[in-house]
Design brief:
Layout: H1 10-26, H2 30-36, E1 54-55, H3 59-66, E2 72-79, H4 82-92, E3 100-108, E4 111-122, E5 127-134, E6 140-148, H5 159-162, H6 187-207, H7 213-222, E7 226-229, E8 240-248, E9 251-259, H8 264-282, H9 290-297, E10 303-304, H10 307-322, H11 332-338, H12 350-359, E11 365-368, E12 373-376, H13 389-403, E13 409-412, E14 416-420, E15 429-435, E16 438-448, E17 451-457, E18 462-465, E19 468-471, E20 487-492, H14 495-508, H15 510-517, E21 524-528, E22 535-538
Helix pairs in contact: 8-13, 13-14, 14-15
Length: 548
């Protein structure tokens, strides 16, 4: 019986269209069968595109991944009657569009090696063709996206995301926010791959697992399964990974470069040295640093500063103005009054807070860019680079990598990082966004490419005063710790900008913070408040107005 896509319920139209495409791509045409002795139809080369789809793997390429070391697989057209289809839908607790599946049984020396199913699941609007391979006991062995048709969210094709599904069984949730971290900006595609994986595991559990392997293979052959020869292609070698780590500004700074050229190791070490050199300028822990010297003398009159220090002052001034003072690196005395820079922790008296706010802050910094001089015009000004220093160190390291010809690298300073290029798989460097309520867990993954990301979180550092814990991030306008925000993350072109804006977003909140972010192109934020869903702002992947 013929069934047109238009006659189906709207929920299944795109999926049915995808199933038609899937079957057409996977089953041999008469011409192909005549030309190859019944082998699989020719498929587009890996990476080929048509008007609507990106073909990442052919059928044989996907089966090679599913059955490594196997020379062949049986392809079985497994049809479901209405009762079996209803039972499967009940087990999945959702409607099921398919009336049958292409199921593959891997053959290793004539014995069953495992199972694989190629299926479709709807992403946002289009079907995603995926392969799910399973061990003979039903554990997921491998997942791979074969055809991706959506215009966004393709980061789910990365091994970093798909590897989360491997080893899962039908007893696992296989759900985002439970045992799978979704990719930022690709939530619906992430859900689709989770649902597709559960669907395959349920199919195998209902109809294949628990049967004697020899009888299962014999039954498949009786039901018309055909044998497909596998190619077992040698995978392309992974990029050479060169890493370096160093303690800078009291934290570990890591540089990872994917290159392998003769100068890569030296470039990584030079990048670390550039960040270390900036620490000697901006550290407020080292008495001999240029910043510490300026804090001691600038109140007495203009002090000439170095070019790196001038860059710090210029960048700070721009962010201070653009955020209406929510970012303020001139409140060092206020930070110390609370005990966030060592010493006893104590809540400042109201009159002390008022004096430090009125007599401190970046409004009391007089910087002359032309003369490169600095003076303090208020009595309680003290520069604190905590909200921008790490970002500047990351940018300094990136500048060296670029000078040395490194185009695929990640500079990671923990809360602040910056990516060059697309990482190991080309889709971007996967960056975990920590869940502030459970710092050992993650909210989502951002695939970062040629951009920087910084997170400010109140959970990172706290002090206890009279049995009450206070986060270390202060609102410069009130002098009080910000306690209504859990974390704020920002993606921006540079690490210094992302670092400063994440602090400003944390202090100002999502509404005012969104206005700050809109000042710069391709800048977005993720705002997390206690007991509330995360809010994606501006160009953050997945936000309503994302442009990245």
């Amino acid at each position: 019986m013929a069934c047109t896509v238009a006659s189906l319920p709207r929920r299944f139209r795109a999926l049915a269209a995808g199933c038609v495409t899937l079957l057409a791509a996977l089953l041999p045409s008469p011409a192909a069968a005549a030309g190859t002795g019944g082998g699989p139809a020719a498929a587009p080369a890996r990476g080929a595109r048509d008007e609507t789809a990106e073909v990442l793997l052919t059928k044989v390429q996907a089966l090679d991944l599913a059955f490594p070391g196997c020379s062949a697989a049986l392809e079985l057209r497994f049809l479901l009657d209405d009762a079996a289809r209803a039972r499967l839908a009940t087990a999945l607790r959702r409607d099921l569009a398919e009336k049958g599946f292409l199921v593959y049984l891997g053959l290793r020396d004539g014995r069953l090696d495992g199972f694989a199913v190629i299926t479709n699941e709807i992403g946002k609007t289009e079907p995603i063709t995926l392969l799910v391979a399973a061990e003979p006991d039903g554990r997921v062995r491998r997942c791979a996206v074969m055809v991706y048709r959506e215009s966004h969210g393709g980061e789910v094709r990365s091994r970093r995301f798909l590897a989360q599904l491997e080893g899962r069984t039908l007893a696992d949730p296989i759900q985002i926010h439970r045992d799978v971290i979704h990719v930022s900006g690709a939530t619906l595609s992430s859900v689709a791959l989770c649902e597709g994986t559960r669907k395959v595991l349920a199919l195998l559990d209902h109809h294949f697992l628990g049967r004697e392997p020899g009888e299962l293979l014999a039954a498949a052959r009786r039901d018309g399964a055909k044998e497909i020869a596998l190619q077992q292609m040698t995978p392309a070698p992974a990029p050479v990974r060169v890493e370096g780590r160093r303690l800078v500004m009291g934290s570990e700074l890591a540089v990872v470069a994917l290159d392998g050229g003769a100068g890569t190791h030296a470039a990584v070490q030079a990048a670390l040295s550039a960040a270390e050199a900036l620490d000697a300028v901006l550290s407020d822990w080292r008495e001999e640093s240029e910043l510490s010297a300026a804090n001691r003398t600038a109140a007495a009159g203009p002090v000439r500063v170095s070019a790196p220090f001038a860059d710090f002052l210029a960048g700070s001034a721009a962010l201070w103005r653009a955020t209406d003072g929510a970012f303020d690196p001139g409140i060092g005395e206020l930070v110390r009054a609370w005990g966030f820079r060592g010493g006893a922790s104590a809540r400042p008296a109201p009159e002390q807070l008022a004096a430090l706010i009125a007599g401190g802050g970046f409004a009391g910094v007089a910087f002359d860019p032309a003369a490169r001089t600095l003076a303090f015009t208020r009595p309680h000004v003290r520069l604190d680079p905590g909200a921008i220093g790490k970002g500047m160190a990351v940018d300094a390291a990136v500048a060296v990598l670029r000078e040395r010809g490194i185009g695929n690298a990640l500079v990671d300073f923990g809360s602040t990082c910056r990516a060059l290029g697309g990482g190991e798989e080309g889709a971007g460097w996967p960056i975990l966004i920590r869940d502030p309520a459970h710092p050992d867990r993650s909210l989502e993954v951002v695939m970062l490419r040629d951009a920087a990301l910084s997170t400010s979180g109140g959970y990172e550092k706290t002090v206890e005063i009279d049995g009450e814990r206070f986060p270390h991030l202060l609102d410069p306008r009130t002098g009080e710790p910000v306690r209504t925000v859990a974390s704020a993350s920002v993606i921006a072109a540079t690490a210094a900008r992302a670092d400063g804006l994440s602090t400003a977003l944390f202090v100002a909140g999502p509404e005012q913070g969104a206005a700050f972010l809109a000042t710069w192109p391709a800048t977005g934020g993720l705002f997390v408040a206690p007991d509330a869903a995360p809010r994606r702002l501006c160009a953050w992947p997945g936000s309503a107005c994302a442009t990245r």
